[in-house]
């Protein structure tokens, strides 16, 4: 019995130990952002002697931080809307109608899961340039829609197949067209699958800095990760501002996660394991 | 072309409306083909041409590939970066996925507060890689960073070093930071795998008195074949296309002295800057992309084939 208790406590020590490793840097980032610079260096581990929001003030006033937030929000929302509409339509077609080519179509989209688009960067850059989309939000949005499609099609067409076809027959009896059927009957039933697609891609698009770095040079259109890149160039000696910037950049995602952590985690594994 | 109607197919007494359904896949095909499939296929073509800046020159066969493997500095950079990628992959497999499995198993064994631990382990995964990079750069700063401050405080002054500035420790530091970021995600996949093991199997093993490491080795791991291969393939792909973290922390030359240079970083530098003054760099960059793509595709295909083989066997 004593051995059992001891074994059990070892498990807890390990669990708590790694929780500290996992959370401590985040906590440090949060706490340091409220400290004046001197305190960050002299008492790195201590609680701030008084909470100061000077650094946050600086971010919004000098760096126009709200602009980055707006840009990131716009790019993410536009990407998700277009991605969901496109992937629902194509998945409906693949899963519900049996034409000669839709097996091939499904396979065509699946292939994309193995294609690291970063490796197509050179042609992609020339393509975006020729389309006149350098410095436009749409460069990022359209690339992210394309990159998100394979996983979205996999998840959504799998889900379409699980819905009973009687629903559709009933709808057709009432004179629904395919489009009406999709919008009025099927989409409301697909909320969990659509939620998964939204979550997976939201994390990716919001946090991405690779494509914005390549395609957005215009200061007014930069997203949060690019803003961070610039922050680090300009404020290398003001650690408090740096920590405030890091905290603020991570906050939106963490807040959304706090509200829906279950869906986040279930959704992510659904995408990965299926 | 004759459509075969299924349960849900449109009625055949149709108007033009029934053909509208064929337009449904069009936007998705368009975006996906234009922005994903075309650039990757085009990279193959680009690799066979000479480039002058951003302008395509004449066809020059496999010259770009030959230069990549024989000409300096490409030759040295390629093999060094490949070694770094392999090291990156191995450390991730051992440290990151080892810890991820341990944590998944802890939660699987139903410790109290499991949902808290799940959230706590997953949280870093929500940050942008660039934020992860900067955050750790501040923590590991040799003079003012907290890690060295703590080491000094507990009397381990001799261990303090410029973690990211020393060629001996820089790559390891970067891989471990990436592991810190990614562990929660792999833990979730492995946990899903553990939870799919039928309860009866675990019960039967316990009745036989199988516990501890023997339980894991002879019951749990064999039942988790598929999720583990998924984890291996994903780790492999991610380690071979790794770019952002090194770029954010160590710049496009993989400082110090190229000690953190990875293939994707080398690719970025060759195609877009860094090794400037070289007229052929876009072609060589494309050749490198093709080589990297081949490595990823072949190894993943072999793994996947192995899974299918096992499944049907």
Automatic annotation (TrEMBL), chain A:
InterPro entries: MetI-like, MetI-like_sf. It holds the Pfam family BPD_transp_1. It is a multi-pass membrane protein. It is found in: Cell membrane. This is Sugar ABC transporter permease. Residues 69-260 form the ABC transmembrane type-1 domain. Belongs to the binding-protein-dependent transport system permease family. Keywords: Cell membrane, Membrane, Transmembrane, Transmembrane helix, Transport. The chain crosses the membrane at residues 12-34, 68-93, 105-126, 138-160, 181-203, 239-260. It comes from Paenibacillus physcomitrellae.
Automatic annotation (TrEMBL), chain B:
This is Sugar ABC transporter permease. SUPFAM superfamilies: MetI-like. The keyword Cytoplasm does not apply. Belongs to the binding-protein-dependent transport system permease family. It is found in: Cell membrane. The keyword Transmembrane helix applies. It is a multi-pass membrane protein. Residues 82-303 form the ABC transmembrane type-1 domain. Keywords: Cell membrane, Membrane, Transmembrane, Transmembrane helix, Transport. The chain crosses the membrane at residues 20-49, 86-108, 120-139, 170-194, 215-237, 282-304.
């Amino acid at each position: 019995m004593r051995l059992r208790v001891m074994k059990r406590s070892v498990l807890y020590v390990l669990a708590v130990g790694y929780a500290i490793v996992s959370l401590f840097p985040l906590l440090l980032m949060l706490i340091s952002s409220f400290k004046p610079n001197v305190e960050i260096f002299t008492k790195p581990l201590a609680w701030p002697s008084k909470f100061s929001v000077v650094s946050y003030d600086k971010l919004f006033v000098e760096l126009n931080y709200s602009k980055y937030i707006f840009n990131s929000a716009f790019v993410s929302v536009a990407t998700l809307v277009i991605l969901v509409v496109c992937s629902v339509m194509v998945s409906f077609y693949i899963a519900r109608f049996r034409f000669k080519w839709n097996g091939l179509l499904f396979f065509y989209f699946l292939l994309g899961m193995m294609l690291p688009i970063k490796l197509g960067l050179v042609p992609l850059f020339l393509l975006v340039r020729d389309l006149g989309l350098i410095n436009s939000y749409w460069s990022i949005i359209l690339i992210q829609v394309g990159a998100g499609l394979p996983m979205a099609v996999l998840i959504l067409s799998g889900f379409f197949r699980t819905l009973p076809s009687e629903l559709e027959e009933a709808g057709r009896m009432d004179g629904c067209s395919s489009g009406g059927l999709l919008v009025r009957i099927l989409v409301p039933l697909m909320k969990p699958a659509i939620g998964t697609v939204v979550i997976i891609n939201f994390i990716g698009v919001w946090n991405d800095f690779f494509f914005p770095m390549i395609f957005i040079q215009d200061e007014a259109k930069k997203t949060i990760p690019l803003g961070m890149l610039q922050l680090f160039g300009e404020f290398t000696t003001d650690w408090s501002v740096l920590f405030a910037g890091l905290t603020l950049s991570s906050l939106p995602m963490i807040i959304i996660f706090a509200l829906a952590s279950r869906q986040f985690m279930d959704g992510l594994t659904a995408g990965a394991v299926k | 072309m004759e459509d075969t109607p299924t349960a849900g197919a449109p009625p055949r007494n149709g108007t033009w409306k029934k053909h509208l359904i064929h337009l449904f896949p069009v936007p998705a095909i368009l975006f996906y083909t234009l922005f994903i499939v075309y650039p990757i296929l085009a990279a193959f073509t680009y690799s066979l041409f000479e480039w002058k800046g951003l302008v395509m020159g004449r066809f020059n066969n496999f010259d770009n590939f030959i230069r990549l493997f024989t000409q300096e500095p490409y030759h040295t950079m390629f093999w060094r970066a490949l070694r770094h990628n392999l090291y990156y992959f191995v450390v991730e497999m051992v440290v990151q996925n080892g810890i991820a499995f341990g944590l998944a198993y802890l939660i699987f064994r139903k410790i109290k507060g499991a949902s808290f631990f799940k959230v706590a382990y997953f949280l870093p995964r929500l940050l942008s890689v660039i934020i992860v990079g900067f955050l750790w750069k501040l923590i590991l700063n040799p003079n003012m960073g907290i890690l060295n401050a703590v080491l000094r405080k507990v009397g381990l002054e001799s261990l303090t070093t410029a973690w990211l500035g020393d060629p001996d420790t820089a790559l390891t530091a970067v891989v471990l930071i990436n592991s810190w970021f990614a562990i929660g995600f792999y833990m979730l996949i492995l946990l899903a795998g553990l939870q799919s093991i039928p309860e009866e199997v675990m019960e039967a093993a316990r009745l036989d008195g199988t516990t501890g490491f023997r339980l894991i080795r002879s019951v749990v791991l064999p039942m988790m074949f598929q999720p583990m291969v998924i984890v291996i393939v994903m780790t492999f792909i991610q380690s071979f296309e790794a770019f952002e973290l090194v770029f954010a922390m160590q710049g496009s030359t993989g400082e110090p002295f190229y000690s953190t240079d990875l293939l994707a970083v080398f690719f970025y530098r060759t195609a877009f800057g860094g090794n400037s003054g070289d007229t052929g760099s876009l072609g060589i960059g494309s050749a490198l992309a093709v080589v990297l793509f081949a490595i990823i595709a072949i190894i993943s295909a072999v793994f996947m084939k192995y899974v299918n083989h096992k499944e049907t066997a």
